[in-house]
Design brief:
Elements lengths: L4 H5 L20 E5 L5 H12 L4 E5 L4 E3 L4 H6 L8 E3 L1 H5 L3 E3 L3 E5 L4 E4 L4 E3 L2 E4 L3 E3 L23 H11 L6 E5 L10 H16 L4 E5 L8 H11 L4 E4 L8 E4 L4 E4 L2 E4 L2 E4 L3 E3 L1 H5 L8 E2 L13 E3 L4 E2 L7 H20 L7 E11 L2 E11 L4 E8 L6 H23 L1
Parallel strand pairs: 1-2, 1-9, 2-5, 9-20, 11-12, 11-17, 12-13, 19-21
Antiparallel strand pairs: 3-4, 6-7, 7-8, 10-18, 14-15, 15-16, 22-23, 23-24
Helix pairs in contact: 2-9, 6-7
């Protein structure tokens, strides 16, 4: 399966005309999208583009620059600059989406309105929520978001990514980098282990006697054999992964003392990357569409089980077999956009099909991938077939996989932002 910008974008048509901010045409159906990441931005763009102005689309997103979590590890490893993973919303606005930079703080599903922190109330006919993740309170003993400057999570890219990289660069010679990995399910299953690889690459270049400790509550993880092969080949003796069988899930941290306690053993560390357990972004809970930590959805159109006029995309959704990834969110957004447009304008709705690929970089030109195709069933989004890189692949294959990932990144960010 080879992807590049042209095949990813397909036959995307020219964008519709610019909508005046907060001005609605009389009689147009209204779609409000909350969250401007891989799910929300894609859904907003496709509804505006494919409806050719027949639907009024408003995107609510507090940040003016979206930093992709995918490829943010490459920034930590020195393969990207921070601006390389930052994207603005001008293309969406030029394509007919009314972009409002504000926080959504409430949803009244009876009145069909969304409340914003700035005081505005937006009515909707269809509401799409793509808020990404928040963290489960108390998931790691001793850590909460008030400690994120001392022990960054860097699992919402941007300033946290910059902070973690600065801490990495300031490590003393021979210092210790610790990671507390998250339990399932979480955003980007291979992400923590690509991060370990990129941190190891940075340290090999700048601080070769440093050590990496990973405390993991899981007995195994995505692409485990591939990562462990890569760590042995490129970073021998640097990475100590402590899984659940050896107490990796019995962890507490002390941000003031900069210590990590794993199964009763206290270790002084220089940098600690705490990635806590995750849940759906807060607005999904406020909208009353979550059940536990996530929002259950119908596979055919990503509508919530709680309300047929509210849809949840990407990381926040509980949909079945798809991993929580940027590719997944983008794929789900296109299915959702087609369904929403059909419901509001009577246009043709195509059967739902989904796909995902997750690439990871282990070392320069050593890329690996895992992916699958999926279909909608009455119960869930169900996996149809899949693929994964193999251990022992040639350097040429691994380089081609990395080049493929770069093409995909260009393609998806253009597909999202226009």
């Amino acid at each position: 399966m080879t992807l590049n910008r042209r095949t990813f974008l397909g036959t995307a048509a020219a964008a519709a005309s610019l909508s005046a901010p907060m001005v609605r045409a009389m009689g147009k159906p209204r779609v409000v999208v909350v969250g401007g990441g891989a799910g929300g931005a894609t859904a907003a763009r496709y509804i505006a583009k494919d409806s050719k102005g027949a639907i009024d689309v408003t995107l609510i997103e507090p940040t003016r620059t979206y930093y992709t979590c995918f490829f943010s590890n490459l920034y930590l490893g020195g393969f990207k600059e921070i601006d390389d993973i930052g994207h603005t919303y001008g293309g969406l606005a030029a394509g007919g989406v009314n972009v409002v930079h504000d926080w959504a703080i409430g949803v009244d599903r009876d009145a069909k309105t969304v409340s914003l922190a700035g005081g505005a109330t937006l009515p909707y006919d269809k509401l799409i929520l793509s808020p990404g993740i928040d963290f489960v309170d108390g998931a790691v003993e001793g850590w909460d978001v008030s400690a994120q400057n001392k022990m960054p999570h860097a699992y919402k890219a941007g300033s946290q990514s910059e902070l973690l990289k600065a801490q990495l660069a300031a490590m003393p010679e021979g210092g210790v980098f610790a990671m507390v990995a998250p339990p399932n399910p979480y955003r980007c299953p291979p992400g923590p282990y690509e991060r370990v690889s990129m941190v190891a690459h940075f340290l090999k270049q700048n601080n070769p006697t440093a050590k990496i400790i990973v405390a993991d509550p899981k007995p195994k993880f995505s692409k485990m054999a591939l990562f462990q092969e890569g760590w042995a080949n490129h970073y021998e003796g640097m990475v100590d992964w402590i899984g659940d069988d050896f107490g990796g899930g019995i962890v507490s941290v002390d941000p003031d003392a900069m210590t990590v306690t794993i199964d009763g053993e206290v270790t002084k560390v220089d940098v600690c990357n705490v990635i806590p357990a995750m849940k759906a972004g807060r607005i999904a809970e406020l909208a009353g569409v979550t059940d536990g930590n996530w929002a259950p959805v119908n596979a055919a159109d990503m509508s919530t089980k709680a309300d047929a006029d509210v849809y949840v995309l990407g990381d926040a959704s509980q949909q079945g077999d798809m991993p929580k990834s940027g590719f997944s969110a983008n794929s789900q957004a296109k299915v959702c956009a087609n369904a929403v447009r059909g419901a509001l304008t009577g246009s043709k709705v195509f059967p739902a099909k989904f796909s995902n690929t997750c690439w990871s970089l282990i070392a320069p030109n050593d890329g690996v991938k895992v992916g699958a195709t999926y279909e909608a069933t009455p119960e869930k989004i169900a996996k149809v077939d899949g693929f994964i890189s193999q251990t022992g692949e040639s350097a040429d294959v691994r380089k081609a996989t990395y080049v493929e990932s770069e093409g995909w990144y260009t393609g998806i960010t253009n597909d999202m932002m226009g």
